[in-house]
């Protein structure tokens, strides 16, 4: 049976690794002592918005012993936040087998490239996790929204597909992962807004003022990608260019459409909210920051996303984290000059 190593076991890593282990896969989790301590002896409990409730008991290796766990891995799933990717790549390089397959299950546009550059000769694939996972504490991780994991199409995935399918996480192969990651980045522009709102995703997205903030950020990013001739895949029922039009609709129209197209439960929150809550630096540079840098490289500006970067930086330093929708919208409109 192939051995799967999850490197950076937090919300996504414990959930995906735990679901694989619960379905009988040979999984080892590598992560922080703090995470291992919260799991304790009780093992993992994985639940989802459809009512799944499974338990798993995968070995958890703390990071200082991580390289040893990688040595005999056939597949490594990288699930650290983007800031840690370079360091993880450097850790993997001397210990990873030549025939091992590495899949980045991270947000942002650059993580698989960073891993690939540090791991020459290895198969390194970009992945995209569309659903939300919240760490409920005590080893419990909850998938609060829908979607299938998408991965760069590659024959080396074949030996692992049955394990993911058995775990209830079938892989969707794509031959346009750059465009998929850009589409996911458009959705992740909400991470900053959700983190600044300080409320669950469902509650935030049910308020038009927050959705208008997201529409401003998405339109700006969409235009920036278009100006760069960078395609954007369709990863949601609605094409990416139409999402801002839905977002600005009155609450009851949005609720009626979103209710049919996006299953999301009341506890789901963005990973950026989790970072602020835990006092960690966020992935803002890898999400809204990507838009700002791309715009600059084209001689353009992206003032809404630049402002969201600044507000998250301020929140990381202890600044406001309970913005009302109206206040945030007014602030972003001022920044955009519109
Ligand atoms: N949570 C979600 O709902 C979703 C998240 N994603 C993406 O998935 C990725 C993972 O997110 P998420 O699971 O939320 O992140 P978490 O912060 O919950 O988990 C990552 C874990 O990796 C640990 N870590 C960092 N560096 C190392 C290292 N060198 N060795 C071992 N462990 C390390 C972190 O510790 P420490 O905190 O000390 O750095 C943390 O415990 C991100 O790119 C995120 O954007 C995508 C879709 C949804
Ligand atoms: C699932 C989604 C879009 C929102 O929670 C996410 O990717 C994140 O939280 O980072």
From TrEMBL:
Its EC number(s): 1.1.1.169
Reactions listed under catalytic activity: (R)-pantoate + NADP(+) = 2-dehydropantoate + NADPH + H(+)
A GO cellular component entry from the record: cytoplasm
Record carries keyword 4Fe-4S: no
Domain Ketopantoate reductase C-terminal positions: 183-315
Keywords noted in UniProt: NADP, Oxidoreductase, Pantothenate biosynthesis
Pfam families: ApbA (PF02558), ApbA_C (PF08546)
Boundaries of every Ketopantoate reductase N-terminal domain copy: 4-153
Transmembrane spans: none
PANTHER family, per the entry: 2-DEHYDROPANTOATE 2-REDUCTASE, 2-DEHYDROPANTOATE 2-REDUCTASE-RELATED
Function comment: Catalyzes the NADPH-dependent reduction of ketopantoate into pantoic acid.
Protein name per its UniProtKB record: 2-dehydropantoate 2-reductase
